[in-house]
Amino acid sequence: MKLDLRIAITALWLIAQIPLTSAATYYFSSSGNDTNSGTSAAAPWRSLSQIYFKSAGIGGRTPFQPGDSILLRAGDTFEQTISCFSAGTSNEPITIGRYGAGANPIIHADNPSVTWLAVSNHTGVYSATSAFPSTIVRVYDTNGTQYTRLDKGADTLDVWLGKFQTNNWGFTFDTPSLIYIRTPDDSPPPQMRLFQYSAVGIAADYLVVENLDIRRSYCGIVANSARGFVIRSNSIQDTLSMGIFCGRHCSYGEIAGNVITRGGWTLLYFQTGGNNWAHHNTISYSSATVLGIAVNGKERCGIGLERGTNNLVEHNTISHVDMSCVDYWLEVSTTVRFNYGFHAGGAAYPHGTGLQVHHNIFNVDGGRGFGGAHSHDPTKSPAPDAGINLIYNNVVYNFVNYGIYSGTNASSGIQFRNNILVTASTNAALALLHDGMNAEQNLYFCTAGSPKGWYWNNTKYPTLAAFQAASGQEAHALYADPQFVSDNPVTAADFKLRSTSPGINAGQDLKAAGLIPPSQEYKDYRGTLIPQGFRPEIGAYEIPAPDPPTKVRPTE
Predict the structure, then answer these.
(1) Measured between alpha carbons, how far is 148 from 139 in angstroms, rounded to an integer?
(2) How many CA atoms lie within 13 A of 39 on its CB side?
(3) Could you tell me whether strands 437-440 and 125-129 are parallel, antiparallel, or unpaired per DSSP bridges?
(4) Rounded-to-integer distance, Cα 242 and Cα 311, Å
(5) Are 28 and 72 in contact (CB under 8 A)?
(6) Closest residue by Cα to residue 83 from 200, 197, 222
(7) Mind spelling out the 3-state secondary structure of 228-291?
(8) 439 φ, ψ (degrees, to nearest 5)
């Protein structure tokens, strides 16, 4: 099913390269002028707000048409944001990208250079012009102090401004639109950070966003109610919330080749929708502090999946996240595979129905393993409401606390197969399992000595044999050194198995067992077909079968 999804999305965008109409190109430069035509590199527009006005048809403008391109000059810096509501088609998407030689154009979405003017008759109150004040969601000074919004309501301007206290802010929709603040000591404000909700926002079908360098925003790129979109090859850094957020029923989107770093929430998030494909992204550093500002994002994960269907997450690198590499909530029929995570608070917290999590490598460096610690409900991770959740051929390395956790109120149908779980802590539980889990042919090991043991329905068993007898689980499991090719694995390739590993030919053939559909790809982390021997390996790598001996023709 997931292979079909990739083929469908790829075919869609191959077709899209065939021009069907006379498309227009619009140019933007930080040295341009909005009185220019905007239709040539020699006469670019300056204000990115032109994209919003034109895409929405405001002021009699004709919206962008399928096949149009909206291009920012390479090497330029824009202290504005992009909002696009014009739609392309499956054959002719609208592209937002770059033109010219040099570094990708930079977008700052925190309004760093606004000019503040004192407001007469209101001591300590200052105003600045803002194109879209309603999209500002957070206001901070350079010390990281957050200002509190004060809404105008039905007050006159004078009455409203008279209510401003220290560190208040607010805005009006007058022409020009203004934002107001009151400083702590009533002196002119220092450089302020007025964070827009997103640096790039798209809310239409068949849009491509590519080759942008986004810095300092609340969210980096936001897609809402969009279908067939592509977000690729962008750099996104220093977001108070999410780097890329696909929400409100986004479908058939492709998120590929982006670098997302330093965010205060989950860095790449899918909320509702389905049939989206995230691949080959580099995701790193969720943090409680961004740009010196204390943020309160509790779900500081790498990739988040919430209430979506049939999404595919593969070939991503995820590192230095406070919670799990991948977090789920009420997800259906989604596959997470071939991802590499390291220096993370956890591997993956699956929650949903019909999930597949396989051939991932999570070098968590002291974090948790699979399941549990879910921000919504720790007792239901991993746990399906119906059907099976299949977690197989993964590696979880250097965990503490536990390697695998199943909830106390889990229903039946969780299949845990062919995984390697290795801890360097004698205080870590190798497994914390309850009724509803079906675990078999996994390999466990503690590099520090005797392990803490396995738990079944909250009772501890210090040996694998005792756990097997009490639980009826893991009849063919192993407790042994997996013998990775590196004694101190760091990169994904370090988790291949040596030829002497006890995990070789020790796994279960999941296709033969009927757990994997006959039509589904059955490949390891690097794309090798499974099995190569008479049974699959345990872990993320299959050892290729040796080449047959060369037949030498006898000399006549």
Answers:
(1) 8
(2) 5
(3) unpaired
(4) 19
(5) yes
(6) 200
(7) CCEEECCEEEEECCCCEEEECCCECCEEECCEEEEECCCCEEEECCECCEEECCEEEEECCEEC
(8) -110, 135
Query: Can you give the C-alpha Rg of the chain in angstroms?
Result: 27
Q: Please report the beta strands in 414-510, taking only residues with DSSP state E, as ranges in sequence order.
A: 414-417, 420-423, 429-433, 437-440, 443-446, 453-456, 459-461, 478-479
Q: Which helix (H) or strand (E) holds 39?
A: none
Cβ 431 vs Cβ 459: under 8 Å: no
Q: Is 133 helix (H, G, I), strand (E, B) or coil?
A: helix
Task: Tell me the DSSP string of 294-314.
Answer: E---S---SEEEES-BS-EEE
User: Residue 543 pairs with which residues in a beta bridge?
Assistant: none
Question: Which is nearest to 269 in space by CA: 229, 298, 232, 302?
Answer: 302
Q: Cβ contacts of residue 552 below 8 Å, gap of 6+?
A: none
Q: What is the pLDDT along the chain (556 residues), one digit of tens a residue?
A: 454 666 666 655 555 454 455 799 999 999 999 999 999 999 999 999 999 999 999 988 999 999 999 999 999 999 999 999 999 999 999 999 999 999 999 999 998 888 999 999 999 999 998 878 889 999 999 888 999 999 999 999 999 999 999 999 999 887 678 999 999 988 888 889 999 999 999 999 999 999 999 999 999 999 999 999 999 999 999 999 999 999 988 999 999 999 999 999 999 999 999 999 999 999 999 989 999 999 977 789 999 999 999 999 999 999 999 999 999 888 999 999 999 999 999 999 888 889 999 999 999 988 899 986 544 455 555 554 445 789 999 999 999 989 998 877 655 678 999 999 999 999 999 999 888 789 999 999 999 999 999 999 999 999 999 999 999 999 999 999 999 999 999 999 999 999 999 999 999 999 999 999 999 999 999 999 999 999 999 999 999 877 666 555 555 4
Residue ranges of domains in the chain: 117-191
User: Would you say 376 and 402 are in contact if contact means Cβ atoms under 8 Å apart?
Assistant: no
User: Phi and psi dihedrals of 336, rounded to 5?
Assistant: -125, 115
Q: How would you class 92 by CB atoms within 10 Å of its CB: exposed for 0-12, middle for 13-18, buried for 19 or more?
A: buried
Q: Which residue has the tokens 């010219």?
A: 100
d(Cα 415, Cα 26) in Å, to the nearest integer? 53
Q: Nearest-5° angle of CA 320, CA 443, CA 335?
A: 55
Question: Would residue 272 be called left, alpha or beta, if left means φ above 0 and alpha means ψ between -120 and 50 degrees?
Answer: left
The DSSP bridge pattern shows strands 389-392 and 352-353 to be unpaired
Beta strands in 330-424 (DSSP E): 331-332, 335-337, 340-349, 352-353, 356-358, 361-363, 389-392, 395-399, 414-417, 420-423
Strands, E assignment, 373-412: 389-392, 395-399
What CA–CA distance (Å, rounded) separates 152 from 180? 11
Which runs of consecutive H residues, i.e. helices, occur in 86-201? 157-162
**CA 431, CA 468: separation in Å to the nearest integer?**
12
